[in-house]
Each structure stands twice: as structure tokens, then as C-alpha cells.
Write a structure and sequence with these properties.
The complex is a heterotrimer of chains A (280), B (423) and C (321).
Chain A lengths: L5 H6 L3 H24 L3 H4 L15 H7 L1 H34 E2 L3 H11 L4 H14 L6 H26 L2 H9 L4 H12 L1 H16 L3 H6 L8 H4 L11 H22 L14
Chain B lengths: L2 H21 L23 E8 L5 H16 L2 E8 H13 L6 E4 L3 H5 L6 H4 L2 H6 L2 H6 L1 E2 L2 E2 L2 E7 L1 E5 H7 L8 H13 L5 E4 L7 H10 L6 E2 L2 E2 L4 H15 L12 H9 L3 E6 L1 H10 L4 E4 L14 E8 L6 H11 L2 H11 L6 H7 L6 H6 L11 H13 L8 H13 L3
Parallel strand pairs in B: 1-2, 1-3, 8-11
Antiparallel strand pairs in B: 3-13, 4-5, 6-13, 7-11, 7-12, 9-10
Chain C lengths: L1 H4 L22 E2 L2 H30 L1 E3 L5 E4 L3 H8 L3 H30 L6 H13 L2 H11 L6 H8 L16 H26 L3 H9 L4 H12 L1 H16 L3 H6 L11 H10 L6 H25 L2 H6 L1
Antiparallel strand pairs in C: 2-3
The chains are: A mainly alpha (280), B alpha/beta (423), C mainly alpha (321).
């Protein structure tokens, strides 16, 4: 990695970790507030004057939330939908991005353009049409409808990012692989994909998070309480008549965990780096 | 097999499994038998769909799920329940109606526009006489459009003046105010206590500005409509709004009342910082649970000396959409819902007020509800029986708060004009 | 790759310069039918899930609806006319321009710094990387609600801290003040956009081989010069992707603007997307047809904006090299 002025770093080894701590806190502080709010009774969250630390500590929130079968059902739905959507996006975007990066064919730019334009429709404006469509296909209230929708909405970003990565890989690498006897598909798999790993990882994380946090379409399509994902389900904790801020925030914290886990597992591939010299 | 290709295989299998699982979970839609349109003949078992608003996490779904079981046991029909949060139910119901796919029964806070669009059953079609006669007349009237009842009430609430006994004692106020003049004086005394104490919590933000304004204008002899004509900018109403504005100008209220929603005002009261606020039974429930504020409930002060306090009442509705084949099942729904052990159980769990005469008797044993129950049959409601009100209400919500820093008469004139133009 | 010619290797998106320009781009031409095989699944999803509802949107914009959502008949161009005639339209458009430009510009600028930092090697880097992901990992709806509490006049953490530190004597009305609401919204918008953008840049930075920087340093450049003249241009494709995507997402971003404005009546601080929603469900118009018309205007606006942006940054030229 680029690390200018190594001697400076050696003389003050604590400098970067301290900056790192500051940066980390800068991104975490609202969620630390949220965490503290999960540990206090709901009334204390909206008490005037406010106090940063809970006046009364309530430790049972996470237990309550995790023991709530409605919550667990929502969690399962979110996991199912997000994993499936992400898988579809990757499987579909890779061939499309490869083709537009590598081949010339009539309609290539048009395709990229269409892909970009579809990204510009806000799901909020499309939701009625989506409902009508899935209603006529008899798919309202199914996981499949939500999975397909999430996949379709995130395709554009995945195609674009992968397109960029594929374009940047020198053609010679592929030609070399083919000289070695790989077919087109095998070339794609064995040569291209490892080199575009950072792009794949970005697309995976991006789609997973987008699907995990999607709200408007899930709200409209999923009628059964057990089929609601977390984003829709946890609305139940705070209504106009009864507020359970502690549980709302406790549930939200739990909802962040799977995403962070996914990220922790694959983030080191984010900076794979091109293998320079592979053609020499 | 390389590690990478193995990974791909695993992904493919996982994906296939997810899709299979997803597809098999039984969709609903145009073609499915048990789907959104009711199926079956009038004599066989039918499936109907209820879209219910979520009042609370712990009680709403629990009640309707149990109700569906009882309903099935009693009638053999299936009730599909969809619970939607109040924030989203407008959007959800609009989406369904746009797709010509409304539920059989919808729980909403308005009905007249739907009746006007000829989408609903009237009580003649789906309410048995014994049930209808049990409903409180005030609610029957407010649920009737052009002489026919379409909006069946699910529960009701009534507002009253909540006051903080501790702050009152501290400020030397002996009893809750009976007139506006006393009220203003009391608010001044409490604000003068200092330390961030607020005289009156005034929520005129977009969430329910019409509610707050209603209770004040009713107690000045005004109304939204009089004798079938809109009287939004009547002199009494202008006087009321000017009075509220003066409270804000004199800093007797919390910060920025034109941009405060009801719940924020309640939270301030629950923090013990506010002397008076207009509240209802869910607030009482919250206060009792926290047990921190020593509060009392009193009738609203009137403008005139010796006036009769007016109670502002609100009901939400359970309306039934006309769909082929569902009439009998819908009727059976209402028959069951208005059984005392059903409707009153629901109302009690959610902490609201009854809608039936038998309900009033059933709740009479609770001393905390006495203030409300006595005045409930004469509760004053907003003109929900007029479809134009559905639009006017929204206009009020979006514009009333601006009167706090603007001209009350101009705001009301504009609202009057839009109401006269049909909303 | 660098050894033979001494020139830097091609990173994300950029085309190799110099000798390479003369050679064939990519793998050559293929027939449309063959192309279809590669593109079919993507096309199917996009047409099915996005274009079909888009057609519905167009149909809705040309229909007249009752307040309940019932379609009453055709409306010609009335809905479009009514939207354009709306008193608040000017305010809403101005708000949207400020919102998008401020959030995207600030996000890109800050993310470049964050990304650079995240690629440095130091103890605890992993945890910082995880921390940066959290605003993105959390649902936007929840983050918006959280900030409504944090910004609150009476029980917000920010006011609590500022009062405790005696920096202010009365709380600041972040959400209620007409002057402060937009900066407050922008702050949250930037906050939730940085993680994704930073990681796009991290991926972009990772695609730059270390030899590039080694060579530049050997040539005697200062860290700032290296960054400005070598790294930044090589990041150009990543910046392009990030800015276009951010423009679109920020423009279409609903929860932040809607939730932070929950207590504010009227449309005075709405962007076009919340305006569109309120037209359908919360405003006195409560008109689904007008909302659909506004939705189409939104698509046109962002499309034009993105095209102009791409033109200005000469994306096409870069693609065709």
C-alpha cells in the first residue's frame, strides 16, 4: 500500500491508530447513542432534559428482542431475501458486464444506457406499478417477488462497477489464457474474476446492504407479518400510541450485525490489487 | 476441482435452493384461489381480508389473530389479517385501491371519500339491527354519509386537559382552569417558575394540527361546519387561532409550537416539564406506566365564563368494500366484532374508549375513565362524514402551524376557500 | 506490465495509453444474438422489474384519480400542468439542487480522504474499516429516526453536549429552524453516503499497482504531488462511478428528508422526491396522478443532470478510446 514518509511513521507509531480511533468514532458515534438508548427504558430516551448516559439502566432489551418470535421471523426474511438477491445480482451482472466490456455489438451503448436509466427511477414512484405487476403474476406476498425486485434494482451498480474492472484488464491476459487452452467461459472464471475481485466484493457488499435495508417495496408486497423484513417489521416497536424506543434501537443494533459480519469476512478482498507482471 | 469453481457450485446450489424456497411459499394475487378477492359462494366458506392499522406492537396483532381464529370457528370463513403501521396505511390502501384490489375490510381514520366513490357497503347491507342499535348515536351520525352509515367505528378516544399537579402546587394554582382567561393566567404562572418549565404544550405540527385546533375552537362556540356550510374562518375560529398564537408569542408554550407534533408535546409532559397539555387515554397509560408525573385530568376550559366544556372525540373506522361474494362473510365479521367480549377486549387492551352503549357500561367500573365516559355520548367530532373534509384535514395539517408565525385570519381564510372549492 | 515500456499499468476503467491505442479494443465484434446470451438475464430482470412498473407510472400520470386512489378516467396532460403550477415547486427544486450538490460534493471530497486513510497499514485498521461501514449497514429509515432524536431541541444528544460544555445557553433548533434544517439534512446525507463512496475508492485505489507509486516516488515526488498527479487521475473512473451513483441515490433519497421534516408543515424544505410522495398521500391534493407526473419529472431531471455531468467529464470519449 502507498505509505509515504515511512520514517515519520516509524518515529510515531501511535499516530495512525489514534487517528484511526478518531475516524472510527466519527462514524460510530450516533450508533453509540443508539446503543445507549437500547439500554434505557423508553421514557428515558425522550426525557427532558436529556442525559447522555441512561439515568436508569435497562439490561433486558436485547433479550426481549431476541426472544420475540415476530422479530426472529423478520430476521429470517431479511437474511433469505438479501442473500438470494445478492447471489442473483452477481450471477447476472458478471456476464453482462464482461460482454459489454469486451465485445462490440450493436446496442452495446444502448444497453449500458438503459441500465443507467433504470437506476434513476425511484422505487417510491414505481412501487404501485410493482405491486400491480406482481399481483397479476400471483406473486404478491412471496419472497421471490422481493428477491427479484431487489436484484433488479441493484443490477445497474454491479454492472457498472464490474464493467469498469473488466475494461481495465489488458486483453493480453485473456489471450494468453486462451493460448493456454481455456475456453471463453473458463477464461472468464480463471483469469478475469480473480482480477476483478475488488469489484465483485464491492458489488456483493453493496447489493447485500441495499437489499437488507430496502423498505418501500417490502412494505407494499409483503402482507404476512412473518414475511416482512426487518426494516418494515421494526416499525411496530414505535407507533403513534405506544413507543418502545429501547426495543426499536435494540432491534436496529441487532440488524446491523449481519452486515458487519459479512463485511468483516470479505473485506480483505476489497483491495486485491492487480497482479502486475502476469504477462511478462 | 479448484476451490474457486467449488465456490461457484455452492453459490449456484444455494441460489437455486433460495429461489425454490421463495417460489413455493405461496403467492397471492390475481389468479390464486385464496387470494385477494373473496372466493366461494355465499353459502360455502369464504376468505376475506382485513387490513388493520397497528395501534401497538403487543396488542393489535395479538387481538386480530385471535379474532381470526374465533371468526373461523364461528363461521367457517377465513380471515386474512394484514397489519400495517399508521404511518404507511394511507400509502398501502391507496396502492390497493389503485390496483382495484382493496381488502374486504379496511381499518382507517377516514371513510367518506370511499363512500363517495361508491366502494363501500352501507350498514343496511352488513350491519344487523341489534348491532347498529348498540352503537353510540354520535358515532353513527359521524359515520354516515348522505344518510347512510358506511364508517363503522372500531374504537374511540376523547381529549381532556391533562395537568401536572406538582407544577400547579408549586405555582400556587388551586384548581384546573375553567375559562381561557384562567388558563392563560395559569400558564403564565407556570412559565414564571423558570427552570425550563413550560406553561402549555401546544402541538400544531402537521401530524394532527386539526385535532388540537378542534378542541379549542369547539370550546369557543365554533365549528368546522355549521348547518352544512363550511365555517372555518368564522370570527370565533379566528379568535381561537389568534388566542393560540398569543400563547406562543408570549412564550407560554414549548419551542416552535407550529412545528411540534403531538407525541413531542406528550413526551415533554411526561418529563414533568409542562403544566398543561391536551391528552387522551394512551397518554394516561404511558404516564401511569412511568409513574413519574403526578397528573390530573380535567375538562377543557371554555372561552366564556360558565360555558359547558366540549369534548373532542375521534373514532377510527372499519369499512367494508363491496366485492362479489363477500357480503355474508363481512356481515358475520361485524356481528362478531361488535360482540362485547370482542370489541371491548380490543379497546381495553389498546387503552381507548368504547363505541357501544354496552361498552360504556362495561368500562364504567374504571374510575380513571369517568371524565371521558360521561361526556363521550356528546362528544364533538370533526366532520368526517363529508368527503371534502378528507382533503381539508390534510390542508389544515400542512398549513395551520404557519399561523404561529403568520396571520391566523389569512390562514383560515385560505383554508375556508379551499374547503368551499371542494378541497 | 510496466516492465516492458516503463509506463504505468492500466487501472480501473482507464484505457492504456501510448502504444496500446492503435490495437483492437477488447475481444472484437460478436453478433447481437450472441450478445443476447450474455445480456439476457440482466435484460429480463430490468425490463421485468423496472420497465414494466415504469410504464405503469406513465399510465398513472395520464389518469385522473379520486382521493381514495380510484381511477376515474383519463387526464391528458392535466397532472403535469398541475404539478408545474404548484406554488411550492420553485422552493422544492431549489432545495433539491442544494441538497444534491452539497451532499455529493462533500461526500466525494471527504471519502477520498477516508479511502486513502483506510488503505494505510496500521494497528487497528480492521476495526476502523468495520466502523466506517456501520452508517451504511444501518437502515436509512432507522438512521433518520435516530438523527431526529439526536437533533431534538428538548432531548437531543447534540444539544445536551453543547449545553453541558456551556458552548450554548439555549438549545439549537436544528430541525425547526428554517435556516438550520437544510444543513442538518445535508450533514446526515453526507454521513450515510461516505461509507459506500469510500469503499468504491478503496477498490479503485487497490487496483493501482504499487509499482506506480514506487516509480513516482523514485522520480522524486512529494506525497501531495504524487496523490494529485498520479493517484487522483487514476481514480478518475472510480470518482465518476461514485459521483454518478451518488447523484442518483441522493436525488432519490427519501427517508432522510422525509423523517427530518416530519414536524415541518408544508413543502418548504422538501426535495422533489418527498414532494412527489406528499402529493400522493399527505398534501391537500392527495392526488396519485399528480404524484406520478412528478415522478416522471424526477426521472427526467436526474437523467438530464447525469447526462450533463457525464458530458462535462467526457465519459464517452474515455469509453471509446
Amino acid at each position: 500500500m502507498s505509505a509515504p514518509a515511512i520514517s515519520w511513521r516509524r518515529s510515531r507509531p501511535w499516530a495512525l491508530p489514534v487517528v484511526g480511533l478518531a475516524v472510527g468514532l466519527a462514524f460510530l458515534w450516533p450508533y453509540l447513542v443508539m446503543l445507549l438508548d437500547a439500554f434505557r427504558p423508553s421514557e428515558d430516551v425522550v426525557q427532558t432534559p436529556p442525559s447522555l448516559l441512561p439515568r436508569v439502566w435497562k439490561w433486558s432489551t436485547f433479550g426481549e428482542v431476541l426472544g420475540d418470535e415476530r422479530f426472529l421471523a423478520w430476521l429470517k426474511t431479511s437474511l433469505l431475501v438479501s442473500v438470494a438477491s445478492t447471489a442473483i445480482v452477481v450471477l447476472v451482472a458478471v456476464p453482462a458486464a464482461y460482454a459489454t466490456a469486451r465485445f462490440r455489438f450493436p446496442g452495446r451503448m444502448a444497453f449500458l444506457f438503459v441500465v443507467l436509466v433504470t437506476q434513476m427511477f425511484s422505487p417510491t414512484s414505481l412501487v404501485v406499478g410493482i405491486y400491480r405487476e406482481f399481483f397479476s403474476l400471483n406473486l404478491v406476498n412471496t419472497y421471490l417477488a422481493l428477491i427479484l425486485t431487489n436484484a433488479a434494482f441493484n443490477l445497474a451498480f454491479a454492472i457498472w462497477i464490474l464493467h469498469g474492472f473488466f475494461s481495465s484488464i489488458p486483453v493480453e491476459l485473456e489471450e494468453a489464457a486462451e493460448l493456454d487452452g481455456c475456453g471463453r467461459f473458463a477464461t472468464l472464471r480463471r483469469v478475469m474474476l480473480p482480477l476483478t475481485l475488488p469489484g465483485l466484493v464491492t458489488a456483493t457488499v453493496f447489493t447485500f446492504i441495499a437489499a437488507w435495508n430496502e423498505y418501500v417495496v417490502a412494505l407494499t408486497l409483503m402482507l404476512d407479518d412473518t414475511k416482512k423484513p426487518l426494516t418494515v417489521g421494526i416499525n411496530s416497536y414505535v407507533t403513534g400510541y405506544e413507543q418502545n424506543w429501547d426495543q426499536l434501537f435494540g432491534a436496529s443494533i441487532i440488524a446491523i450485525v449481519p452486515v458487519v459480519i459479512l463485511f468483516a469476512v470479505i473485506e480483505r478482498h476489497l483491495v486485491g490489487g492487480l497482479t502486475a507482471g502476469s504477462v511478462k | 476441482m479448484t476451490r474457486r469453481s467449488r465456490a461457484w457450485r455452492v453459490a449456484a446450489v444455494g441460489l437455486g435452493a433460495s429461489i425454490a424456497l421463495a417460489g413455493c411459499s405461496g403467492g397471492s394475487g390475481a389468479g390464486s384461489a385464496g387470494g385477494n378477492s373473496s372466493s366461494g359462494s355465499a353459502s360455502g366458506p369464504t376468505t376475506i381480508k382485513l387490513v388493520a392499522a397497528e395501534y401497538s406492537k403487543d396488542h393489535t396483532k395479538a387481538f386480530w389473530d385471535k379474532f381470526a381464529t374465533d371468526y373461523k370457528a364461528k363461521t367457517g370463513n377465513t380471515l386474512q389479517v394484514q397489519i400495517v403501521s399508521w404511518d404507511d396505511i394511507d400509502q398501502q390502501s391507496s396502492t390497493m385501491v389503485q390496483n382495484n384490489n382493496p381488502p374486504d375490510i379496511l381499518n382507517l381514520n377516514a371513510y367518506a371519500s370511499y363512500a363517495k366513490d361508491n366502494l363501500l357497503y352501507s350498514s343496511d347491507d352488513v350491519l344487523s339491527a341489534s348491532v347498529k342499535s348498540d352503537l353510540l348515536p354520535a358515532f353513527v351520525k359521524s359515520g354516515s354519509y348522505q344518510g347512510k352509515m358506511y364508517g363503522m367505528p372500531d374504537l374511540s378516544s376523547a381529549r381532556a386537559m391533562f395537568y401536572n399537579k406538582t407544577l400547579f402546587t408549586k405555582a400556587g394554582i388551586a384548581a384546573p382552569p375553567k375559562t381561557w382567561a384562567e388558563f392563560e393566567a395559569d400558564a403564565k404562572k407556570i412559565t414564571a417558575l423558570g427552570g425550563g418549565d413550560i406553561g402549555y404544550g401546544l402541538p400544531l405540527g402537521p401530524e394532527e394540527a386539526q385535532g388540537e385546533f378542534s378542541i379549542w375552537l369547539f370550546n369557543n362556540g365554533g365549528d368546522w361546519k355549521t348547518d352544512g356550510k363550511w365555517t372555518i374562518n368564522s370570527p370565533q375560529n379566528v379568535e381561537t387561532l389568534t388566542f393560540l398564537k398569543s400563547l406562543a408569542t408570549q412564550k407560554l408554550t414549548q419551542n416552535n409550537p407550529g412545528k411540534t407534533n403531538r407525541q413531542d408535546a406528550f413526551d415533554l409532559f411526561a418529563s414533568g416539564k409542562v403544566g398543561m397539555v391536551v391528552g387522551f387515554s394512551p397518554l394516561a397509560g404511558t404516564l401511569d406506566k412511568a409513574g413519574k408525573v403526578d397528573y390530573g385530568v380535567a375538562p377543557m376550559p371554555t372561552k366564556a365564563d360558565g360555558g359547558t366544556p366540549q369534548t373532542f372525540g375521534v373514532t377510527d373506522y372499519l369499512m367494508a368494500f363491496k366485492k362479489p361474494g363477500n357480503q355474508a362473510a363481512v356481515k358475520a365479521f361485524y356481528d362478531l366484532y361488535y360482540q362485547p367480549d370482542q370489541v371491548n377486549t380490543f379497546i381495553k387492551a389498546e387503552g381507548f374508549l368504547p363505541v357501544t352503549t354496552t361498552g360504556i357500561a362495561a368500562f364504567a367500573s374504571d374510575p380513571k375513565l369517568k371524565t371521558y365516559l360521561d361526556t363521550l355520548p356528546n362528544a364533538h367530532l370533526t366532520p368526517t362524514d363529508d368527503p371534502t373534509w378528507d382533503k381539508v384535514k390534510l390542508a389544515v395539517q400542512q398549513n395551520l402551524g404557519t399561523a404561529m408565525t403568520g396571520d391566523p385570519k389569512a390562514v383560515l381564510d385560505k383554508l375556508q376557500q379551499s374547503a368551499e372549492n371542494g378541497g | 506490465m510496466t516492465g516492458a515500456t516503463g509506463k504505468p499499468a492500466a487501472p480501473v476503467g482507464a484505457r492504456p495509453r501510448g502504444r496500446r491505442r492503435a490495437t483492437v479494443r477488447g475481444r472484437g465484434a460478436i453478433s447481437p444474438l450472441a450478445a443476447l446470451v450474455w445480456l439476457a438475464p440482466a435484460l429480463l430482470l430490468i425490463v421485468g422489474v423496472v420497465l414494466w412498473p415504469a410504464v405503469e407510472l406513465v399510465r398513472a400520470s395520464r389518469s385522473r384519480y379520486s382521493i381514495t386512489g380510484l381511477r376515474k378516467g383519463p387526464a391528458g396532460w392535466d397532472n403535469f400542468r398541475n404539478v408545474l403550477a404548484n406554488d411550492s415547486l420553485g422552493t422544492v427544486l431549489t432545495n433539491t439542487v442544494i441538497w444534491v450538490i452539497a451532499v455529493v460534493a462533500l461526500t466525494i471530497a471527504i471519502s477520498l480522504g477516508v479511502a486513502q486513510f483506510l488503505t494505510k497499514d496500521f494497528w487497528g485498521r480492521r476495526f476502523v474499516r468495520w466502523a466506517v461501514i456501520v452508517p451504511w449497514a444501518a437502515s436509512l429509515v432507522i438512521t433518520a429516526r435516530l438523527f431526529t432524536l439526536i437533533y431534538s431541541y428538548y432531548y437531543g444528544s447534540i444539544n445536551a453536549v453543547l449545553l453541558d460544555l456551556h458552548l450554548i445557553t439555549t438549545p439549537i433548533d436544528f430541525l425547526g429552524s428554517d435556516k438550520l434544517i437544510m444543513p442538518s439534512m445535508i450533514a446526515v446525507g453526507v454521513f450515510v453516503s461516505i461509507p459506500f463512496t469510500a469503499y468504491v475508492f478503496v477498490a479503485g485505489l487497490g487496483a493501482i499497482p504499487t509499482e506506480v507509486h514506487e516509480a513516482a516516488r523514485i522520480d522524486g515526488g512529494s506525497p501531495w504531488q504524487i496523490w494529485r498527479h498520479i493517484t487522483l487521475p487514476l481514480l478518475r473512473p472510480a470518482i465518476l462511478v461514485a459521483s454518478v451513483m451518488n447523484m442518483i441515490y441522493v436525488f432519490n433519497s427519501f427517508p432522510i428528508v422525509y423523517t427530518l421534516n416530519e414536524s415541518n408543515p408544508g413543502f418548504s424544505h422538501d426535495t422533489t422526491i418527498t414532494f412527489m410522495y406528499k402529493l400522493a398521500f399527505k398534501s391537500a391534493e392527495k392526488d396519485v396522478g399528480q404524484s406520478a407526473a412528478a415522478g416522471l419529472f424526477n426521472v427526467v431531471i436526474i437523467l438530464v443532470a447525469v447526462l450533463v455531468y457525464l458530458r462535462v467529464t467526457r465519459w464517452r470519449d474515455q469509453e471509446e478510446q
